[in-house]
Amino acid sequence: MTTVLETVGLAKQFGGLVVANNIDFRLDAGARHALIGPNGAGKTTFVNLITGRLSPSAGRILLNGGDITALRQEERVRRGLGRTFQINTLFKGLSVLENVCLAIGEHAGLGGQMFRLVGTRRSVVAQAFALLERLGIPDDAGRLVKELPYGKQRLVEIAIALGLDPSVLLLDEPAAGVPSAENRVILDVIAQLPASVAVLIIEHDMELVFRFAQRITVLVQGAILMEGTPAEIAADARVREVYLGERHHD
Amino acid sequence: MAGASPVEQFIRAHRLRLIELLPWIVAVLDYFAFGDYLPLGSQILIMILFALSLDLVLGYAGIVTLGHAAFFGAGAYAAGIYSVHVSGEPLSGLLVGALAAAVVGLVSGAVILRTTGLTLLMLTLAITSLLSAAANDAGFITGGNDGLQGVAISPILGMFDFDMFGRTAYLYCLAVLFVAWLFVRRLVHSPFGRSLVGIRENVVRMNAIGAPVRRRLLTVYTISAALAGVAGGLLTQTTQFVGLTVLSFERSGAIVIMLVLGGVGRLYGAFVGATLYMIAQDQLAEMDPIFWDFWIGLLLVLIVLFARGGILGLADQVLLLIRRRR
Amino acid sequence: MLEATVSILFLGLAYAMILYIISVGLSVTMGLMGFVNLAHGVFAMAGGYITVTLMNRYGVPFGVALLLAFIAVAFLGVVLERSLYARLYGAGELEQVLFTIGLVFMAVAIVRKLWGPLPQPITLPAALSGQINLGFRTFPTYRSFLIAFSLTLTVLLWLGIERTNFGARLRAAVDNRRMAESLGINTSRLFTLSFALGSGLAALGGGLGADILALYPGYAMEYLVYFLMVVAVGGLGSIRGPFVAALLLGIGDTACKYLVPQLGAFFIYLAMIGLLLWRPAGLFGRA
């Protein structure tokens, strides 16, 4: 199995506060990997370190074998790293179609063109629309994102990440804030993600985690508590202890 | 268009609509109808160009600046100094103005666009004050407080002499504005232009889709500076004079007001806002020059409270109401 | 040489003190509410005009005039904040900038209409004019008074912020507003109070400094850059940062005007720009 994403001794501290503690993590090609842990464990911080929003105090990050620790965010994205945010981070005033077109256009290296007209990039538009169809929201293509219900906005969030054609996809609580009735669609989308993409998902929803993940990593106070298959994790006493009082009933 | 699918609408968004020809029709009619007011007309055209340049930065990229006069003034002085010491040829003078302003834009942008919010705003003010102080101190080139003397412009293309009635000046400004408009219009409908909107709407997202945000901002800042420099150069060439007011805070403030009045981020806000402001200033300021500032201030307050999209924004709302009633 | 240095330091210090007294309120309100208030200079201007008018036209003694100006402008600040500013706290930066610039324009026009375009003449109280002999050399009495008074005011202000309940709550709210609110601190009342205090102080600075920053209708716009520089370089929300920034600006500007009069303002702007680039959040600001 080839490793597409790896962190070696990744650490981050703010003054005396340690938010990431010597994390050694591996993500294999085509993985379905979940990252769980109690609130404040540092899961989003970990993702921010990988994507480059935060720079580490120590350690290295390797993407497809190459060291990306010193690279800026946009460089990492261009090398195949895509992410969604825990809270929708979309272009609210633009249409759904344009949101996705922006991502696809940047990925194709066409984002900076000054003398073409956006409308004439037929392939970009076609790809964007096809993506929307795959996610079941083609009818909302022309609507402004801010007019959509939260659940559909969450789908747009995923669409943008997919538009980057990533080899590694980081999903930060994709179902967060979505009423459980609309959860279904998001779960289906995640289940149908292409096998070529390695997916790391941060989630609190245990049902989602156990249905989706082939491997689970448990993060507590910035350090890895344990890693293993769903069965191993569910059986572990320490994990249950950490989650005492935090179990989700669905 | 109403029946077209969203995809088709998106693809056709850049197509020229008939109403976009309106400003040009008005401008040409004005030439024939208001012969006495051509000098004012030229000034309006120059301000439209200046406001258009600001719209790229403020309206599309979302950079809040109170220092755009720095580029206007740089272009004005460069064109003026060029005409005094090198050549009175106007077109090359505009080019010199554009280049000088672009350099100022590139250097200051590289330095200040790393910051945001109040710090950035402060720095735009400081850069303009810096240039103003420099212009004041370098009196031997700029004429200091008295302004640059001896600006003389040769006929355009060797054929069209600047006449007393301002006819040549008007058509000159109109032609330059037209070319600039074609350029800016193309730019805002391009992937680059849309990415600026993306940066304005959600810079975190733009970073997360791999867009080189800082480079894009610096690019638009420099382009905008160049255009503002052309406007400044036009002012120098049509009035045969440059004074320190081209680098004043009042100049920066006035152009922001003009743009906001018309409506930011919509290309034509510059046309509407600059025209109305300049005409109103011409008419009303004579009646009560002291209180002109008061009305402008009140207008700003009212716009922020009730009409953030400016006049074009209000027009949109009215149209929406009409459509709903149908 | 020493003569000149002492003079520069002395005059620069007086200038710095005035800048600080005026700007400290701006730092607090911007740090507290994140509101870009470009109209702060109007309070200083109002304070100056009220003080001078009370003295010149109504013969009110200097100290009383200052006090009245403080109260009047603080009250004006409260009214403005509650009725207009409060609506724009959530608004974008451009809106806040435009709104406050609009207020400046209106204020400038009103002042010009009522008082005319020329600078206001100031007659310093007899007790404070002339020279004072400090042993090794003489200094202008008024400037000496200014420095002493301002330093006292500054110390009182710092003590107040450090030692009082109000100060503690203010510091907490500036540091983390949401956290402060969840602790039960009424931040909106806190803000109104500190806005009033800040405006009043600005008025005081305007009245005291009428000798240094000439009172004319363009006051609120022309000196705005200086107030903003002091706050930006000092660090938003900081009380001490603007003090240091004001010293740098005040003494630096005076030095430049003395030593390199042809290029005076140029260097100061360059220096301030440099400082802001080195420390974008200000010398004492949080990054």
Describe this structure in words.
The complex is a heterotrimer of chains A (250), B (326) and C (287). Chain A contains nine helices and ten strands. Chain A has two domains: 1-80 and 172-177 and 198-250, P-loop containing nucleotide triphosphate hydrolases (Rossmann fold), CATH 3.40.50.300; 85-165, no CATH class. Chain A has helices at residues 43-51, 73-78, 96-107, 122-134, 150-163, 180-191, 206-212, 230-235, 237-242; strands spanning 3-14, 17-28, 32-36, 58-63, 66-67, 81-84, 168-172, 198-202, 215-220, 223-228. The mean pLDDT of chain A is 88. Chain A is α/β, with parallel strands linked by helices and 250 residues long. A six-stranded mixed sheet of chain A has the order 6-7-8-3-9-10, sandwiched between helices. Chain B has one domain (16-246). Helix content of chain B is 73%, strand content 0%. Chain B contains 15 helices and no strands. The longest helix of chain B has 27 residues, at 213-239. Chain C has 287 residues and is mainly α. Chain C has a two-stranded antiparallel sheet with strand order 1-2. Chain C is globular, with a radius of gyration of 19 Å. The B-C interface holds B 58, 64, 66, 111-112, 114-115, 117-119, 121-123, 125-127, 129-130, 133-134, 136-137, 249-250, 253, 256-257, 260, 264, 290-294, 296-301, 303-305, 308 and C 30, 36, 84, 87-88, 91, 93-95, 97-99, 101-110, 112-113, 221, 224-225, 228-229, 231-232, 236, 262-266, 269-270, 272-273, 276-277, 280-282.
Q: What is the end-to-end distance of chain A?
A: 34 Å
Number of DSSP helices of chain B? Answer: 15
Q: Give the oligomer, counting copies of the same chain as homo and different chains as hetero.
A: heterotrimer
Rg on CA atoms of chain A, Å: 18 Å
Let me know the number of strands of chain A. Answer: 10
**Low-confidence residue ranges of chain B:** none
- Straight-line distance between termini of chain B: 17 Å
Mean pLDDT of chain B: 90
Largest interface, with counts of residues having CB < 8 Å to the other chain, equals: B-C, 44 and 46 residues
Which CATH class of the largest domain in chain A applies here?
A: Alpha Beta
- The helix/strand order of chain A is EEEHEEHEHHHEHEHEEHH
Cα Rg of chain B? 20 Å
- Helix count of chain A equals 9
Report the portion of residues of chain B in β strands: under 5%
Structural class of chain B: mainly alpha
Read across the widest sheet of chain A, the strand sequence of neighbours is 6-7-8-3-9-10
Share of helical residues of chain A: 25-40%
For the biggest sheet of chain B, the summary is: none
CATH architecture label of the largest domain in chain A: 3-Layer(aba) Sandwich
